[in-house]
């Protein structure tokens, strides 16, 4: 009786193992079939007109990411005989072996998936804010870092506006124009405000670009002054500013304007001008500000 029970248990385990193996095989075949279908659809679109994507293809973008590092695939792409695909850096860091399989097996080039990755194009994540760039899936992160349409938020308290730097300028002109100090590039203007009244002043350039003169105040020590521009980060080297405080004894700072798309209460700029409380009168700090455009590097 014990022998029969053992035999029955062994048969059940064998059946379960066979079912799991069949399931894994079906999963791999299904993944390959999906990749082939996407490849065929993309090729059909390309055959209609070079560079013209007339049909929308929906695809789970997970299949376009490496299963190890989860970064977007870039050719060369490798796979094992069981269909597990990895990117080139992960292949090199793991001695050319598949980590999903046990034991690890060798990897070979996956030319079909490479063609799919090269063919798939997506819209920029900032399309709703005006960017009409179509880019390859593998280049999305690179483009997003330099996209001029990265949304900027309005710095005015309780205002929820969010849009491109151009639309932000239009919004500010329409709704908050009286909240800003206007200035001309290359000319000096004097501004003064309470050390504890507001953490920043909005400066509006002649091209309607928004700058924030920041005052990170320490009531026991003084003010930490700096300037930022509300714009995509790739524009941060286009402007220089100079701050000057005091008459007989003068404190000065000259630096490049850093950029941010959102004011979050405190911005850790790389350069600051420290103004001790002794330079302030009636808790007000008076600053000469000059901003100028620089030639792109």
UniProtKB/TrEMBL annotation:
EC number: 2.3.2.27
Listed InterPro entries: Sina-like_RING, SINL_plant, Znf_RING/FYVE/PHD, Znf_SIAH
Chemical reaction(s) catalysed: S-ubiquitinyl-[E2 ubiquitin-conjugating enzyme]-L-cysteine + [acceptor protein]-L-lysine = [E2 ubiquitin-conjugating enzyme]-L-cysteine + N(6)-ubiquitinyl-[acceptor protein]-L-lysine
Gene3D superfamilies cross-referenced by the UniProt entry: Zinc/RING finger domain, C3HC4 (zinc finger) (3.30.40.10)
Major enzyme class: transferase
SIAH-type domain mapped to chain residues: 119-177
Recorded GO MF terms: ubiquitin protein ligase activity; zinc ion binding
Pathway note: Protein modification; protein ubiquitination
Protein name: RING-type E3 ubiquitin transferase
One Pfam family from the record: Sina_RING
Domain of life per record: Eukaryota
Origin organism lineage: Eukaryota, Viridiplantae, Streptophyta, Embryophyta, Tracheophyta
Free-text function comment from the UniProt entry: E3 ubiquitin-protein ligase that mediates ubiquitination and subsequent proteasomal degradation of target proteins. E3 ubiquitin ligases accept ubiquitin from an E2 ubiquitin-conjugating enzyme in the form of a thioester and then directly transfers the ubiquitin to targeted substrates. It probably triggers the ubiquitin-mediated degradation of different substrates.
């Amino acid at each position: 009786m014990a022998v029969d029970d053992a035999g029955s248990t062994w048969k059940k385990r064998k059946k379960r193992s066979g079912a799991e193996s069949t399931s894994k095989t079906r999963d791999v075949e299904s993944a390959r079939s999906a990749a082939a279908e996407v490849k065929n659809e993309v090729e059909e679109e390309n055959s209609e007109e070079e560079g013209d994507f007339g049909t929308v293809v929906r695809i789970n973008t997970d299949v376009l990411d490496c299963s190890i590092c989860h970064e977007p695939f870039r050719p060369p792409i490798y796979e094992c005989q069981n269909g597990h695909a990895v990117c080139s850096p992960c292949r090199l860091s793991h001695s050319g072996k598949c980590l999903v399989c046990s034991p690890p097996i060798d990897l070979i080039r996956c030319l079909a998936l490479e063609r799919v990755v090269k063919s798939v194009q997506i819209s920029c994540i900032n399309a709703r804010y005006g960017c009409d760039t179509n880019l390859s899936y593998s280049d999305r992160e690179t483009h997003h870092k330099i996209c001029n349409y990265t949304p900027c938020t309005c710095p005015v308290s309780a205002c929820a506006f969010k849009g491109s730097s151009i639309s932000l300028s239009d919004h500010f002109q329409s709704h908050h124009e009286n909240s800003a100090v206007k200035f001309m590039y290359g000319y000096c203007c004097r501004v003064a405000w309470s050390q504890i009244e507001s953490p920043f002043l909005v400066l509006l350039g002649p091209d309607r670009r928004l700058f924030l003169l920041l005052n990170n105040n320490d009531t026991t020590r003084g003010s930490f002054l700096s300037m930022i521009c509300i714009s995509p980060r790739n524009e941060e080297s286009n402007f220089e500013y100079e701050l000057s405080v005091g008459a007989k004894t003068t404190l000065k700072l000259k630096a490049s304007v850093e950029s941010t798309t959102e004011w979050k209460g405190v911005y850790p700029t790389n350069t600051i001008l420290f103004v001790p409380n002794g330079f302030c009168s009636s808790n007000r700090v008076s600053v000469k500000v000059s901003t100028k455009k620089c030639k792109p590097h």
